[in-house]
Amino acid sequence: MLDQIISLIREHADETIINNPDVPNEHNEAVVAEAGNSITGTLKSMLAGGQAKDVLSLFNTAPENLNSNPAMQQVSGNFMSGIMEKFGISSSQAMSIASGLLPMVLGKLVSRTNNPADNGFQIQDIFNQLSNNKTSGIDISGLLSKVGGSGMDKDGDGDVDLND
Fold this sequence. Notes:
164 residues
């Protein structure tokens, strides 16, 4: 799963990391890896800490509302702290990088997870990996529908668009 998330990050890292003068070129790959580790590490930590509802709600949040989601806020805070500490990036630069990258990446992750035609990200697999298989006997899709409807695909047509 981390490899798939890193691929999503790379798809969106050109402006925020790769072509960003605030990120020295020799740190580009490490900052990309830090973003991936922040996403998976934060979500794992949240699940282990009893915040499963917050993690579930992430997968029911419309892209335009991601910044107000508690899981997104924790991922962003951890990512910013990590790149400030490890790479000497200022807090304003870290905030700019996080706000330019993470909503796109997590929005794409949520969208792909909620799209039944996309087998790249399955909600059950994500939760199983984040919880070290402690969720393998739990119907995550069923829980997701109870947390906030039936995902972002409100009209049940297999895609997330303006009709939802």
